[in-house]
Design goal:
The chain is mostly helical. About 50% of the residues lie in helices and about 0% in strands. It folds into 2 domains: about 55 residues, Homeodomain-like (Arc Repressor Mutant, subunit A, Orthogonal Bundle), CATH 1.10.10.60; about 210 residues, no CATH class. Helix 11 packs across helix 12. The protein is elongated and about 55 Å long. The C terminus is likely disordered. It binds a DNA duplex (21 and 21 nucleotides) through helix 1 and helix 4.
Length: about 300
DNA sequence: AACTGAGCCAACCGCCGAGAC
DNA sequence: AGTCTCGGCGGTTGGCTCAGT
């Protein structure tokens, strides 16, 4: 049916349900609604439609947006992890229980330092850092199943995602054999992964990942062509639940593309930062653009 | 006045399941 | 059984606004 609108039916329906419906509230959320959202999120995770049903006049999109823009940051400022709803101190305690690591005091220090470093290059100590670290942690949990017990981020409520990320997290506790795992031999107990090294170095450039990608091009962490890697083969290759921004950020340290690989050759020293890797990458792209475009080109002059 | 960065939110995307054919 | 359409859902993005510089 043609409505004369340049919209598909789905868009129209969304517009109606999320905005035009007459029973919707358009005023700001009340403290009571805030409390309810936080409590429900704690109980059932990011099931926005279910949460919204408890809030008359609010849509799942409203609740989701409010959570993402306000509540999550609010909780973070209060020292509560918005994912697990646990105080960061408790998470750090849990983190301290990871086996095969140096003493807790050292780890705590390096962990906060890692977060602070991230805050410089991202946007302050916020949930973003936790989410940025999460896929890396998961990668390392997969790569080091023998030495790292998966329980830090695996505490994410199983209901926190509908289709993708949730299922992957639960898979952590049931390790599979992955075709792209021949590199596992490189992660022998004699050289266990060190959180300290990881956090003291560049969190986006774990050197072990380079070994991984050199070993098997298929077992990459590529987000440029995530469809090449199925979840069954290697569930944590896909960065489920992360946007391109996150994935791209990670790319600087972990892609297998020709150019990317070169880029972190130059920035793989422990002292280099994520920002430096971006700058390196930027220089490289600028150098390559003319040949890619077949003509002289300086995008800075646009 | 111009620029910049952060916050906000409607809209979009991709996946999934249900139901019709 | 296979395919298609539709609606629901959660995650993400793009563009607007506004405060700060």
């Amino acid at each position: 049916m043609s409505t004369g609108l340049n919209r598909c039916g789905k868009s129209c329906r969304l517009r109606w349900t999320n905005y035009l419906r007459p029973d919707l509230k358009h005023d700001s959320f009340t403290p009571q609604e805030e409390d309810l959202i936080v409590n429900l999120h704690k109980a059932i995770g990011s099931r926005w439609s279910l949460i919204a049903k408890e809030l008359p006049g609010r849509t799942d999109n409203d609740v989701k947006n409010y959570w993402n823009t306000k509540l999550r940051k609010k909780l973070t400022k209060m020292g509560i992890d918005p994912v697990t709803h646990k105080p960061f101190s408790q998470i750090l305690t849990d983190y301290g229980n990871i086996s095969g690591l140096p003493n807790t005091a050292t780890r705590m220090g390096s962990f906060s330092r890692g977060l602070n470093n991230a805050s410089v290059s991202v946007s302050g100590l916020s949930y973003t850092n936790m989410n940025d670290l999460k896929p890396l942690v998961e990668q390392f949990q997969v790569l080091n199943q023998e030495t790292v017990q998966p329980h830090f981020f695996s505490e994410v409520p199983s209901s926190s995602s509908s289709s993708s990320s949730c299922s992957n997290v639960t898979q952590l506790s049931s390790p599979q054999s992955f075709p792209c795992q021949p590199s596992q031999a490189q992660f022998t107990p004699s050289s266990p992964f060190s959180w300290n090294d990881f956090l003291l170095g560049d969190p986006f450039l774990p050197t072990d990942l380079q070994q991984q990608e050199e070993c098997d091009p298929r077992g990459t962490f590529s987000s440029t062509s995530p469809s090449l890697v199925t979840q069954n083969e290697f569930p944590y290759c896909k960065f489920n639940g992360l946007g391109y921004k996150d994935s791209n950020a990670f790319q600087y340290g972990a892609t297998t593309g020709d150019d990317m690989g070169n880029s972190h050759k130059a920035s793989s020293s422990p002292a280099s930062s994520f920002v430096e890797s971006i700058l390196d990458r930027d220089s490289e792209m600028r150098a390559k653009l003319p040949e890619l475009l077949g003509e002289s080109f300086d995008y800075l002059s646009i």
